[in-house]
From TrEMBL:
EC number: 2.4.2.1
Family assignment from sequence similarity: Belongs to the PNP/UDP phosphorylase family.
Biological role stated in the UniProt entry: Catalyzes the reversible phosphorolytic breakdown of the N-glycosidic bond in the beta-(deoxy)ribonucleoside molecules, with the formation of the corresponding free purine bases and pentose-1-phosphate.
Protein name in UniProt: Purine nucleoside phosphorylase DeoD-type
Site (Important for catalytic activity): R221
The reaction(s) this protein catalyses: a purine D-ribonucleoside + phosphate = a purine nucleobase + alpha-D-ribose 1-phosphate; uridine + phosphate = alpha-D-ribose 1-phosphate + uracil; a purine 2'-deoxy-D-ribonucleoside + phosphate = a purine nucleobase + 2-deoxy-alpha-D-ribose 1-phosphate
Record flagged with keyword Nucleus: no
Entry binding sites for a purine D-ribonucleoside: H8, E183, M184, E185, S207, D208
Subunit architecture: Homohexamer; trimer of homodimers.
NCBIfam families per UniProt: deoD (TIGR00107), PRK05819.1 (NF004489), PRK13374.1 (NF009914)
């Protein structure tokens, strides 16, 4: 019996390209599809988690929202990898800066994803798994950024289950270990890709700074981030 459509995705077999860009916000997925893709068509809208497929410079690409948090991106990326034959997922999201060297609108690439989540429990591993990006995607993204003249910071990021953390020094501890920024999805995506034998990469635009009073508006987060999007589109 076919696994598709799923309770979370109404797309048919073949509706998704081999590479899917995944912003968290489904409205950002709509914006990317309508702004950058040629002949985009909507392939799913279950729970308003919008997904589209079109072409970019002649190459088929899909874009779909992932929602907030590891449980959400865990569901959507699992289904894309296992049921829709997707090979590459590139997360394009926002993150809060932890290091002084980062500023609003800077682009960060997550080489590794630290986490406070228990997502890896399901694998029954006899130790701690280190979620990392696919090196091929990462190295190509860095080269594309250089060609486009976009500086990028590459390193560890934190995927946290907690947005409003009651532990007052939690960020200080991650910052002291050189972690660049904090977000809420990458570790689950990297683990899903590893388990499925597929490829994943997470790129972020700094939307706020944890240690400085700097933050982008909701509209900027939804419609901005063009430099990161252009790297991802060329990478796909």
């Amino acid at each position: 019996m076919s696994n598709i459509p799923t309770p979370h995705n109404s797309a048919k077999q073949g509706d998704f390209a081999k590479t899917v860009l995944m912003p968290g916000d489904p409205l950002r997925a709509k914006y990317i599809a309508e702004t950058y893709l040629e002949q985009p068509r909507q392939v799913t809208a279950v729970r308003n988690m919008l997904g589209y497929t079109g072409t970019y410079k002649g190459k088929e690409i899909s874009v779909m929202g992932a929602g907030m948090g590891m449980p959400s991106i865990g569901i959507y990326s699992y289904e894309l990898f296992h049921f829709y034959d997707v090979e590459n997922i590139i997360r394009i999201g926002s993150a809060g800066a932890l290091q002084d060297s980062l500023h609003l609108m800077d682009v960060v690439i997550g080489m590794g994803a630290c986490t406070d989540s228990n997502y890896a429990y399901q694998y029954g591993l006899p130790g701690t798994f280190a979620p990392i990006a696919d090196y091929g995607l990462l190295s190509r993204a860095v080269e594309i950024a250089k060609k486009q003249g976009t500086p990028v910071a590459v390193g560890n990021i934190l995927s946290s289950d907690v947005f409003y953390n009651l532990c007052p020094d939690a960020n200080d501890k991650w910052r002291s270990m050189g972690v660049l920024a904090v977000e809420m999805e990458a570790a689950a995506l990297y683990m899903n890709a590893a388990r499925a034998g597929k490829k994943a990469l997470c790129m972020f635009t700094i939307s706020d700074h944890i240690y400085r009073p700097e933050a982008l508006s909701a509209a900027d987060r939804q419609l901005g981030f063009s430099k990161m999007m252009e790297i991802a589109l060329e990478l796909a």
